[in-house]
Amino acid sequence: MTEKVFTKTSRIQAPPATVFQWHARPGALERLTPPWESMRIIQRTGGIQTGARVFFTLKTGPLQVPWHAEHTDYRENEMFRDRQVKGPFRQWIHTHRFRPDGENVCLLEDTIAYKLHLSPFSDPFAGRFVRRKLERMFAYRHETTRLDIAAHQAAASAGSLHILISGASGLVGSTLIPFLTTGGHQITRLVRRAPIPGNSEVFWDPAASKLEPKELQGVDAVIHLAGENIGEGRWTQAKKREILASRIQGTSLLAETIAGLDPPPKVLICASAIGYYGHRGECLLQESDQAGKDYISMVCSEWEKAAQPAIQKGIRVVFARIGIALTPAGGALKKLLPVFRIGLGGKIASGEQYMSWISIDDVIGALHHLVICPDLEGPVNLTAPLAVTNAEFTRTMADVLSRPAAVTVPAFAVKMMFGEMGKEVPLSSTRVAPTRLLESGYCFRHPELAGALAHVLGIQ
Predict the structure, then answer these.
(1) Which end of the chain has fewer CB atoms at under 10 Å, N or C?
(2) Are residues 112 and 164 located together in one domain of the fold?
(3) pTM (two decimals)
(4) Alpha-carbon distance 337 to 1, whole Å?
(5) Do 161 and 104 have their domain in common?
(6) Are 141 and 59 part of one and the same domain?
(7) Domain range holding 88?
(8) Do 241 and 282 have their domain in common?
């Protein structure tokens, strides 16, 4: 059988020990898995040292492909190696090397020695597919490593923090936690089921006002992301009550509980949304603008008011008004992708409504920035610097995917399918500027839409 070798080398502006330790910390595998790959970790034992194992599945089309990997070699700050015990390849040996390349610079080298099933007969067609997939994946992995390490180095003066996170299993939380743990921070998750021993979890039940204060002692910061999903299904009266209650109950309970701690956390980052501003046409909105008059505006306004106990205690409270987070792992982009990929994408109604978007990596980067930036409090918009119209978004996405986008979805069809939610989400125009985020010195990874889409979709 023919052995193939793939190598990707990048220069990282950090010492080899820093880059190695980033890989050795919990969350590295999750950070290195591109968002277009659906991975689920089943079990793991150990970290990256010899003998450590990890069992996970990768979704390929409708199939869940099992992968069992074992770590076979380890030299701290120099290299580690893992091999596939069971999986889609006949052979897969992955060697990670970290070599100095001048003062405080690392050459990161990933080498894959692999064999395909049915090689050499499968090489002409499967070989090219696998090669392209590896090039796409490792371009993403190295770029993520470089930018994550740069962000953590820039925040080094803040030290290692103990951060409490609600909504940990959601779209943002599941991306944020690996970013924070690979940066050396300690994470405790708020969960609504029985905590798993050894997993740094604390039980809470906002509807029943259950949260044990002593479980939160020693927390430096709180990031509150929990809340009922507003973008799924029609807004029935029951659904609307659930959306509002899930935000007010959780925020009130958390704010009151941390306000009673001695000492309390230094900061509470409370997720909100740009829906706060409501439908405002072409008006460019900043944090100083008032709430809109839509249902979702009322929800966001009440959501933010529920944090008052923490504010009154003197805790620094930041309301992160998050825009449309772009990732193929969930949210709006996940819903749009299948349609655009088969060439049936297009604008919604007139396409003149503004979409204030932000890449998922800038969402987590900005949240991290809010934690460590002591001068930021109150509302902060988490959107990319330039909002685009729905028509511009459609054209850009079609160009990135090399697909046509000639279809128009009429407004009446959206209203018929989704009712009030359709009117206030896909048909609403909210043009938001991240004024305070930019003024505080945050540097966007993906300030332009085309680059953001290409990155999260792995299109080179």
Answers:
(1) C
(2) no
(3) 0.95
(4) 37
(5) no
(6) yes
(7) 4-154
(8) yes
Widest Cα–Cα separation across the chain: 70
E strand or H helix at 436: helix 435-439
For residue 94, give the CATH number of its domain: 3.30.530.20
Rounded to the nearest integer, the mean pLDDT of the chain is 94
Which CATH number belongs to the domain containing residue 165 in this structure?
A: 3.40.50.720
Rounded CA separation 421/409 (Å): 16
Last residue of a domain, one of 120, 154, 188: 154
Alpha-carbon separation of residue 193 from 124, 189, 190, 202, 333 (angstroms)? 50, 11, 9, 9, 29
At 12-49, the pLDDT tens digits run 999 999 999 999 999 999 999 999 998 899 999 989 99
Residues 190 and 107 in one domain: no
40, exposed or middle or buried, with CB in 10 Å at 0-12, 13-18, 19+? exposed
Assess whether 291 and 316 both reside in one domain.
Answer: yes
pLDDT band, residue 121 (cuts 50/70/90): low
CA proximity to 437, closest of 425, 447, 452: 447
Taking only the tens place, the pLDDT of each residue in 382-421 is 999 999 999 999 999 999 999 999 999 888 788 777 787 7
Amino acid at 308: Q
Q: Pull the structure tokens for residue 253.
A: 């309970």
Q: What is the pLDDT of residue 419?
A: 80
pLDDT in tens, 225-251: 998 777 777 788 888 899 899 899 999
Q: Which residues pair with 96 in a beta bridge?
A: 80, 110
251-268 pLDDT per residue, tens? 999 999 999 999 999 999
**CB within 8 Å of 141: residues ≥ 6 apart:** 8, 32, 34, 110
Count of structural domains, the chain: 2
Based on the domain organization, do 166 and 146 belong to the same domain? no
Residues 6+ apart with CB under 8 A from 20: 76, 77, 78, 98
pLDDT of residue 425: 80
Q: What is the DSSP string of 326-382?
A: EBTTBHHHHHHHHHHHTT--EEETTS-SEE-EEEHHHHHHHHHHHHH-TT--EEEEE
Return the residue matching tokens 């500027």: 433
Select from 258, 247, 371, 257 the least CA-distant residue to 315: 258
Q: Which domain-ending residue is among 110, 131, 154?
A: 154
209 and 131 co-located in one domain: no
